Amino acid sequence: MLLEIRSNIFRKKVIEFHEGLNVVLGDNQATNSIGKTNLLLIIDFIFGGNSYISHSKDVIKNLGEHEFYFSFSFDKKYFFKRGTLDSKKISQCNELYEHQETISLDDFCKFLQEKYHIAYKGSTFRDLVSCFIRIWGKSEDNTKEPLRANAKETNKASVDRVIKLFDKYGDILHLSEEEKNTKSEKDTIKNMYNFDFAKKLTKKSYEKNLKNIGLLEKQIKEIQQSISIASEHEKLSEENLLLISELNKLKNQRFQLERNVERLNFNLSNDFKLGRKTYENIEKYFPSINKSKLARVDTFHKKLAKILRKNIKEDIDASSQVLLDIEKSIIDINDKIKDIDDANNPLFLVLAEKIKEKDLLEKQNETFNKDNKLKEDLENLKLKLIKERNKVCPKIQDAINEKMQKISRRIYGKDNSPSFEIDENKYFFEKSWDTGTGTAYTDLISFDLTILSLTNLPILVHDLPVFKHIEPKRVEKVVEEYNSYSKQIFIALDETSKYVSINDILETKKVIELSEEETLFTIVWSSKK
Q: For residue 492, which of 12, 4, 6, 30 has the smallest C-alpha distance?
């Protein structure tokens, strides 16, 4: 549980928190720019978020870089410090907030995940909690897609989040990782085909290879018998076969390295710079462009081109040296083969070529079979994933709808619950009895409280805009519902004279009361000219 936040930029230097509902109160005039949303963003910052940095640049501009000191209570009290200057690092402190050790933001979030008992497989703390921190300018208005953490997130990622929160993701994660690894193998073969490191076969060419392999095996056997008869030795030298095998491997390596050097030389021959003509055209079509900035861009490109050329030359030199070593090894092996009597037999040279040809065809067919097997494995894994998701999704859906119905009944006084549907890669959140904006936000609150009730989700944060469109008597019911939870819920609310029946709750649960005179920060800049 979050216990307190301290900062020199606060007018009230220490803000203390408690179990259950924590209210940031505004005044009855609904005065803006007094710090309500900023405090919620700071709470998000304390819980590992980054929106405070991006959404409150005016605070840093007017107050300078600053730090927050804060503590949590779990099995014992823990003390930390996080600042805006290097927000990716967290200071572990003693009870006097003296620095003890620096940890990364990721490690801090892992700490929270463990202490809040949500260290589920395949999840991070921020991934689990972020979409339930609904602050103005962040995600507070996502009434149609309450599980979406950001605009770019896929429905599948949102579905994964709720499955993880219900701790049902273990088997799905195992299958997903297997699918990812299988796809990676298949992509490797695809790249081999694309870069001509392997020949891509059709079913027809595969079968043709099989016939040719059979024919080559027969020819090899006949040549071996001929060599056996013609040679003083009873069988082909085993040493020769090993040398030929090694020779073929080296030739393949040489081929691949030569192709790599060709590509590197091609890249080196390209002009990395933007030529003078390019800049003249830019100036022609954009005569007002800042020429000094354009010159700096040119300088940057020249420096970058120099670095790229240096790296490519180093790669070419390294590859060329390996090629020289391979060439030397090929010469050495050829000399050894010539020193062996069998190598002087013309039949032996024919045999070597036949073995090489057979090995190549077998390798092509082996790659073809592996590619098809991976394709089949991928299809099977996708079916298994769908089956596993469909096994857990209905149970989650039923639990959410049942709980939402109970919460909505307490808020509305009747059965006006929204409905939640989920399958393996998408979900639907339908409004309840009417399509008004106030109802949409009330349904969103019901959904969040449902997840808070049924899972180990540790906190909720609801900013003022969540309540603005809800009629006062409904807000009163919502606050009463909030007040029945022991988990921490942080909300911002103003114009409290409208909410007569909950004045006692708001007074008891407030952590700070802000107004035009009593702002969150020591300096007010919104009125500056």
A: 30
**30, two tokens:** 């609904």
Cα–Cα distance measured from residue 277 to residue 269, given in angstroms and rounded to the nearest whole number = 19
How far is residue 381's CA from residue 171's CA, in Å, rounded to a whole number? 12
DSSP letters of 236-263?
--HHHHHHHHHHHHHHHHHHHHHHHHHH
Confidence label for 315 from pLDDT (cuts 50, 70 and 90): confident
Write the pLDDT tens digit of every residue in 348-373.
778 888 888 999 999 999 999 999 99
Asked if the structure places residue 59 within a domain, the reply is no
The 3-class SS string of 174-199 reads HHHHHHHHHHHHHHHHHHHHHCCCCC
The gap from C-alpha 509 to its chain's centroid, in whole angstroms, comes to: 37
CA neighbours closer than 13 Å in the CB half-sphere of residue 397? 18
What's this model's pTM, rounded to 2 decimal places?
Answer: 0.74
CB 121 within 8 A of CB 170: yes
Could you say which DSSP state residue 287 is in? T
Half-sphere exposure of 194 (CA within 13 A, CB side): 6
Report the alpha-carbon distance of residue 288 to residue 303 in Å, rounded.
Answer: 26
User: Residue 513 phi/psi, 5° resolution?
Assistant: -120, 120
Domain that holds residue 273: 238-339
Contacts with 133 (C-beta within 8 Å, 6 or more apart), sequence order: 40, 44, 47, 49, 139, 459, 460, 461
Structural domains in the chain (count): 1
User: For strand 89-93 and strand 99-104, is the pairing parallel, antiparallel, or unpaired?
Assistant: antiparallel
Distance CA 392, CA 163 (A): 8
344's tokens: 């002087």
Report the SS3 class of residue 50: coil
Torsion angle defined by CA atoms of residues 206, 210, 211 and 214, in that order, rounded to the nearest 10 degrees:
160
Query: Do residues 147 and 161 touch, judged by C-beta distance below 8 A?
Result: yes
Q: Record the tokens describing residue 66, joined without a space.
A: 């600053």
The pair of structure tokens assigned to 130 is 């972020």
For 356, the 3-state DSSP assignment is helix
Domain assignment present for residue 143? The answer is no
- Other CB atoms within 10 Å distance of the CB of residue 406: 13
Q: What are phi and psi of 23, to 5 degrees?
A: -110, 130
Helix (H) or strand (E) holding 497: none
pLDDT tens for 200-216 read 899 999 999 999 999 99
Give a yes or no: residue 77 inside a domain: no
* C-beta of residue 237 within 8 angstroms of C-beta of residue 342: yes
- d(CA 301, CA 274) in angstroms, rounded, equals 7
Main-chain dihedrals φ then ψ at residue 316, nearest 5 degrees: -65, -45
Instruction: Tell whether 243 is covered by a domain.
Output: yes
List for the chain the helix, strand, coil content (%; round to 5): 60, 10, 30
CA atoms within 13 A on the CB side of 385: 19
